[in-house]
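Support reply, case 0932

Customer input (verbatim):
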Amino acid sequence: MEEIEVEEAPRPSFDRILYTILYLIIGRFISMVLFVITITQFIYSWLGDEPNDKILIFTEGMAEYTKQLVEYVGFNTNTKPWPIGDWPSKED
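Our regenerated output:
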């Protein structure tokens, strides 16, 4: 019978564990910020018939940042998001 070689993935470093914990805490904070943004946008929409443009731009960046967090925590990438890396710009 032929043996199949399985390449073991390297164990995560201590730094990776600390960054993952940091990013999970930031992810929780993002959900609270999103709640406040949602209420604010509803108020802007009711009073002015359209959402605030500056908040729309910020939430677009926040959505991209959240995607980067999930990719890092899920081991899809080794690129660290903000605050270690850069905040995503609108062009990303």
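We compared this against your earlier run and they match. Two observations from our side: Residues 51-92 form one domain. The first helix runs from residue 14 to 48. Please reopen the case if you see a mismatch on your end.
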